[in-house]
Amino acid sequence: MSELTPHSSIKTAAELLEMYAAGKRDFSGVELGAVNLSGANLKGVDLSYADLSAANLQGANLRGADLSYANFSEANLTGADLRGAIFIGTNFQNALLDSADLREADYDPDSTRFPVDFDPLKAEMKADKS
Prior knowledge:
Elements: H1 13-21, E1 86-87, E2 106-107, E3 126-127
Parallel strand pairs: 1-2, 2-3
């Protein structure tokens, strides 16, 4: 028997933002594919193991977020602030990362998947080999 986590019932961007505004930061495992979180302030959020495939996160503040093992395939992260975020095993295949600020973000070169022609070193990211 599996237990439901407090965020397992989140189905909309509004619900996630409301909980974040109330002080919640742990949204690990949330499934919000194709959701619109453009411009959202989610600084320091835990979205590890989350499914945000095809989500619109354009201009979102995800600074210092834990995005380990999350799925951002085909997501729009154009202009997002991802400084200092954690990308261990994160899937960014076919995601839009144009003008995203990824400085000092940690990634695992063996398990993090980026779009074709994306260069983590040019983006000033830090390779993390645990």
